Amino acid sequence: MRHRRFAPEPASVGRARAFIAGCVERYPEDFRDRALLLVSELATSAVVHARTNFDVTVADAAGRLRVGVRDHGHRAPAFAGDGRLFSSRGLRIVEVFADAWGFTERAEQGAQIWFTLEHRPPDGEMARIGATEP
After folding, report:
1. In the structure, what pLDDT confidence band is assigned to residue 63 with cuts at 50, 70 and 90?
2. Which of the 8 DSSP states describes residue 46?
3. By C-alpha distance, which of 77, 78, 12, 65 is closest to 43?
4. Which domains, from first to last, does the chain contain?
């Protein structure tokens, strides 16, 4: 698993994208584009809504890339009565383009929103980043 912490400033969104780009550089372009789009949305959400430092973690194992963005605020994503998100266009994008996604909230640690993308390892190589459970 790889991890980086970012400051709550707009430039950090690009830095988070660059971090993920380095993790998925060997994958096909469409896979990389999805990963970069989704981390951009989650990093932007952390900067705009939480206004705290945020951590990005990435793990790649068993044909699944898992990326988590944890802010240190104390609010989970807001949902409408039907269970659909209503407060964040970015999370709707995550819902559409991720193979799976969700969030965890811990009072002392803030909220983490994560997504997974399914894939085949490039050139048959085994996962090189590490593994965690969603």
Report:
1. confident
2. I
3. 12
4. 2-124 (3.30.565.10)
Q: Could you give the 3-state DSSP secondary structure of residue 125?
A: coil
Task: Check: CB of residue 57 under 8 Å from CB of residue 3.
Answer: yes
The gap from C-alpha 64 to its chain's centroid, in whole angstroms, comes to 13
72: which 2 tokens?
Answer: 């240190």
**DSSP bridge partners of 34:** none
| Residues 85-128: tens digit of each pLDDT | 445 677 788 888 999 998 887 666 778 899 999 987 655 554 45
Contact 16, 73 (CB under 8 A): no
Q: Is 58 left (phi over 0), alpha (psi -120 to 50) or beta?
A: beta
Residue 51 is encoded by which pair of tokens? 């206004």
Residues in the chain: 134
**Position 44 pLDDT exceeds 60:** yes
